[in-house]
Design brief:
alpha/beta; D-Maltodextrin-Binding Protein, domain 2; 13 helices; about 40% helix; about 20% strand; elongated
Length: about 325
């Protein structure tokens, strides 16, 4: 009897240790705040698919994600701006860009007197260059006939950290404003001509929300969650378009995607395309150092690119088109562990 009890206790102990060992496998990632809501959803859902894996993701901005994956302090990075050739050359091994979903940078504002706002690229660039300082400036008034604009100072809010959201925003402004292109340019971090800095999409959303007269750029879901109004923007065809899953999908449909998956979709052609749209990438080494983690990471990536895409629309992201999904899944198959 005692012998059987001992065996049962030992079996129970071994099972507990085994479960604990599985539960302790943590895959670490860091980077973009832009896709943080959808990635959080994926990690929660995937825990039901494979309870042995947990994901620890630090939403620190795309610049931080690129730095950490290059230093190999994380198992994957995340960025909304593709890595430059210069940065890729610093990688110890081949680094892959795995596109996941697409989304929109929206121009949110805090002016209670304005219930709806229209902006074009040139005017938006001049606001962020500091050339337009008042909400009732003639350039804004011209685009918003019939709207009573207040004589309120404009307070520009921008990212203070290295950010893919900034990359998408400055990529757009550089395409629509020669002045912006020559004076500021495109990057995850730029020398801002004016304004207040805030960390992450969360920080910019909070700063705009609490600052009267403020204007800033954030990922669509952050504006939706914070119930912040945002401007309709004039696209490449001259149509004013509101940011939505549909208008981002229209922009994505026209994107030319090269073999390395590093591409831009700002100021896309097409009447329905929202002009400040961008994709986001997971950054993963083609040759994984840890075989066990590598296998689990590949399994997750395959799930995310197929089953995970169905969660995108509910969080105001656009899923990848089917043809692009197939290409990405083929690339994931090339990861070695």
């Amino acid at each position: 009897m005692k012998s059987n009890l001992r065996k049962l206790l030992l079996a129970s102990l071994l099972t507990t240790c085994s479960v604990s060992a599985f539960a302790q496998m943590t895959i670490n990632g860091a980077g973009a705040t832009f896709p943080y809501p959808i990635y959080s959803k994926w990690f929660d859902e995937y825990a039901k698919v494979d309870p042995s894996v947990r994901f620890n993701y630090q939403s620190i901005g795309s610049g931080g994600g690129q730095k950490q994956i290059l230093a190999e302090t994380v198992d994957f990075g995340a960025s909304d701006g593709p890595m430059s050739d210069e940065n890729l050359a610093k990688a110890p091994r081949k680094l892959l860009h795995i596109p996941t979903v697409a989304g929109a940078d929206v121009v949110a504002y805090n002016v209670p007197e304005i219930s709806s706002l229209k902006l074009d690229g040139e005017t938006l660039a001049n606001i962020f260059l500091g050339n337009i300082k008042k909400w009732n400036d003639p350039a804004i008034a011209k685009l918003n006939e019939g709207v009573k604009l207040p004589d309120t100072d404009i307070v520009v809010v921008h990212r203070s950290d290295g950010s893919g959201t900034t990359y998408i925003f400055t990529d757009y402004l550089s395409k629509v404003s020669a002045d912006w292109k020559s004076k500021v340019g495109v990057n995850t971090s730029v020398n801002w001509p004016c304004g207040l800095g805030a960390k992450g999409n969360e920080g910019v959303s909070g700063q705009v929300k609490q600052t009267p007269g403020a204007i800033g750029y954030v990922e669509l879901i952050y504006a939706m969650q914070n119930k912040m109004p945002f401007a309709d923007l004039k696209n490449a065809t001259g149509k004013y378009v509101q940011a939505s899953t549909e208008s981002v999908t229209a922009a994505l449909a026209s994107a030319q995607v090269p073999d390395d998956f590093r591409f831009s979709m700002t100021n896309a052609p097409g009447e329905a395309a929202y002009p400040i749209s961008g994709t986001t990438w997971l950054l993963v080494y083609e040759q994984q150092k840890d075989a066990t983690k590598g296998k689990k990471l590949v399994e997750f990536l395959k799930w995310a690119e197929s089953e995970g895409e169905k969660f995108a629309k509910d969080l105001n992201y656009a899923p990848l088109p089917q043809e692009l999904q197939k290409r990405v899944l083929k690339r994931i198959d090339e990861i070695k562990y």
